[in-house]
Each structure stands twice: as C-alpha cells, then as structure tokens.
C-alpha cells in the first residue's frame, strides 16, 4: 500500500485566520530511506573483510619486534588505521539502525543513574594520564523509559568527548537531574571549547569544528549525530553551550512523560 508523506506547516494570522501548507515529501522520504539502507548495507559488507585484515595485523604487531624498524612502523600504522576504520564502521552501522528508529522504545526502562556512574568510571580510565577531575552527581529517584543501548551510546559519546577535548588537569562535571519539566543530563568540561559559528552544525555527520583536530583525538565524526538521533527517538532535545578556550556544556533534555518512578520490577519483561 503506497504511503504518502506530508509535511504540514501551520501559521496563525491575527485572531482567526490560519494558513495550512501541506507539502508532499514522499519522494524525499524514499530517497532518504535509500541512502540510509545503502550506508547500512555497505558498512555491513565492509565489516567482515576488515575484521579479517585487523586479525592478521594484530598477529603481525605481536611479532613486529623481530622485523626491521621501517616494517615495524608500517605494520603499527596499518593496525592503527584499521582499528579507526573498524570504529567508523561500528558507528555507521549504529547510526543507520538508530536513524530508522527500528527498535520499540517505549516498553523498556533504563536505570540512567547507574549507567552514568558506569560510563564516568570508564571515562576516568580513558582519561588516564590527563588526570581529569570528575564531578558526578546523579538523582536517584527516576528511571527513563527508553532503549538502554541507544541511551548508553549517546551518553558515552558526550562524556568521552569531554575527555577527548579537555586538556590534562581539566574538570568534567556530569549532572543527571529530574524536575517538573522532565530529566536533564548535563556534561560540562573546561576544555578547548567551540566557536559559536559551528554549534548549529555540530550534530551533522562528519562535521568538525576544527578539521585538523580529529587527527589527534581520533574520533569517528559521528558521535554527535548519534546523540541527536537517540534524542529524537526519545522525544528529547540537545542544547550546546560553549566558549572557546573556556569549555563546553552539552545538555540532553527529556520530557516528563519519559520518566518513571524507580521500580526495579518494571524492568522484567
Ligand atoms: P568527533 O569524533 O570528531 O569527536 P563528534 O560528532 O563527537 O565527532 O563531535 C563533532 C565535533 O564537535 C568534534 O569534531 C569537535 O570539533 C566538536 N566537539 C564535540 N564535543 C566537544 C567538546 N566537549 N569540546 C570541544 N569540542 C567538541
């Protein structure tokens, strides 16, 4: 059965006049769907050969001490680049799954409190020699209705970005709280910051505030696109505030309807 997709726009004039514009976006929607499927399929097809290459490279790295320095360097570089490519493919597959909104989100409940503690613990390990000062505060009262693995990806991306873009000794503050409006996760850092001109485009795939930076930080360029789509799937909204040289704050807002009182029994399916 053919579906027609319409984009509706309502405008109000004066007290009583209304203008409704309906635009047929069916073709655009199908093109977008084809693009998503194509990227998803290509990524899947690339994963298997890449896994084989990485496997052999790991074995070579293990035996590289026996080789001349020039070869050793070449093998180490190949291993590094293939693990970058693996991370990229993992993120592309994840993004195409999240974009299609395939999973049913409403019947699962996530204990965001312990999830955030866990991610911050991992982030502290990742921070390593940079020895960031982590300040974590989580409100225990509510859980969130939503997909646990999607939420984990989104929150990990924000918290790991704070680690990546904050120099040694900086402070990373993670705050999960609930109030009358809903739930809010704020991830704040005292890092390098972002020029405000870039903020509106940061959640686009592969958009980087400073293209030369990612060489050093090694991200896939898809982290914030993943965050954006996870939030769309959970009726949420992302706020970004930043000052260059002073730090950034990323805030995820979820509406009140997404909250549920902490009830462990609810997690049983
Ligand atoms: P990447 O893999 O490049 O980190 P993301 O989608 O996660 O990709 O982020 C997009 C861009 O936003 C980054 O390249 C970086 O320029 C900027 N950015 C994201 N988080 C931060 C942060 N906490 N501080 C400064 N810049 C950030």
UniProtKB/TrEMBL annotation:
Name the predominant localization.
Answer: membrane
Q: Does the keyword Kinase apply?
A: yes
Where the record annotates domain Histidine kinase, the positions are: 41-258
The subcellular localization recorded is:
Cell membrane
| GO molecular function terms attached to this record | ATP binding; phosphoprotein phosphatase activity; phosphorelay sensor kinase activity
Catalyzes what?
ATP + protein L-histidine = ADP + protein N-phospho-L-histidine
Question: Which top EC class is named for this enzyme in its record?
Answer: transferase
Keywords from the named record = ATP-binding, Cell membrane, Kinase, Membrane, Nucleotide-binding, Phosphate transport, Phosphoprotein, Transferase, Transmembrane, Transmembrane helix, Transport, Two-component regulatory system
According to the UniProt entry, what is the EC number of this protein?
Answer: 2.7.13.3
From the UniProt record, give one GO term of the biological process aspect.
Answer: cellular response to phosphate starvation
Asked whether the UniProt record includes Ribonucleoprotein among its keywords, one would answer no
Which cellular component terms (GO) are annotated to the entry?
plasma membrane
Q: What does this protein do?
A: Member of the two-component regulatory system PhoR/PhoB involved in the phosphate regulon genes expression. PhoR may function as a membrane-associated protein kinase that phosphorylates PhoB in response to environmental signals.
Query: What is the protein name for this chain?
Result: Phosphate regulon sensor protein PhoR
Task: Tell me the name of the encoding gene.
Answer: phoR
């Amino acid at each position: 059965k053919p579906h027609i997709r319409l984009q509706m726009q309502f405008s109000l004039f004066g007290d009583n006049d209304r203008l409704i514009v309906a635009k047929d976006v069916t073709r655009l929607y199908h093109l977008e769907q084809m693009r998503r499927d194509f990227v998803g399929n290509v990524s899947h097809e690339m994963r298997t050969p890449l896994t084989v290459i990485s496997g052999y490279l790991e074995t070579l790295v293990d035996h590289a001490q026996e080789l001349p320095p020039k070869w050793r360097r070449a093998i180490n570089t190949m291993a590094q680049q293939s693990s970058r490519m693996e991370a990229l493919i993992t993120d592309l597959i994840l993004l195409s799954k999240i974009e299609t909104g395939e999973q049913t989100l409403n019947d699962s409940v996530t204990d965001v409190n312990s999830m955030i503690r866990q991610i911050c613990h991992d982030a502290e390990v990742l921070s390593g020699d940079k020895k960031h000062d982590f300040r974590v505060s989580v409100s225990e009262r509510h859980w969130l209705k939503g997909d646990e693995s999607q939420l984990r990806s989104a929150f990990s991306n924000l918290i790991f970005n704070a680690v990546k873009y904050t120099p040694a000794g900086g402070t990373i503050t993670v705050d999960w709280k609930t109030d009358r409006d809903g739930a809010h996760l704020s991830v704040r850092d005292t890092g390098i910051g972002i020029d405000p001109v870039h903020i509106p485009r940061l959640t686009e795939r592969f958009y980087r505030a400073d293209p030369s930076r990612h060489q050093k930080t090694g991200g896939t360029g898809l982290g914030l696109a993943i965050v954006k789509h996870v939030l769309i799937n959970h009726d949420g909204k992302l706020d970004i505030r930043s000052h260059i040289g002073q730090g950034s704050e990323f805030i995820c807002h979820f509406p009140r309807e997404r909250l549920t009182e902490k009830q462990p029994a609810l997690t049983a399916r």
